[in-house]
Amino acid sequence: MTNPNRRAVGFTLIELIVTIAILTILAGVLIPAVGNYTDKSKKAKATSELRILSDALSGYQTDCSAWPGNTDITTVTTTNFAMTGMPCMFTNTFGKTGWDGPYLSKGVMASGAMSVAVASASGSAGGGLLDPWGNPYYCYTFANGYSGTTGAVVLLSRGKNGVANTTAANIFANLPTSDDVLQVVTYKP
User: Fold this and answer.
1) pTM exceeds 0.70, yes or no
2) What pLDDT is attached to residue 110?
3) Any idea of the CA torsion for 60, 52, 55, 176, to the nearest 10 degrees?
């Protein structure tokens, strides 16, 4: 015998549809907010690591009277390069007088020597000091500055899209475009 005063247990179809609609609206609001927070934290990490690289490059230049690189850089030329290799940041590769390194504590062993970073190649994981998106940082050098100075060294993370969207003039002026992150090292060679 069934009790006519007893209510059926469970959700009605209307209640389920309303619940799903509410959850969908909440997800639509929260997912972009979480994605935005993730991008901001990655940019903050890139900014912090660019400062570390800037300090390391400045320290090397102060001690050795030259800029670090994969070759012995004694004068600033207008160029840009991925910050991979650069074993001179870890050992006195070029026999520089005054070398007082290592200038970086983070790196990766590659081809028998410490390197700042190794970029990923065709899907393989890179290593060392890469930006939060897994790409190497870039160093931009200017032999003649855009505002009458005698040169500049600027570091750049190409951001989430991995492309330098900032023009050379804006790199020099520390005005990043799109998702790029910049750090001016010096305005003088």
Assistant:
1) yes
2) 78
3) 120
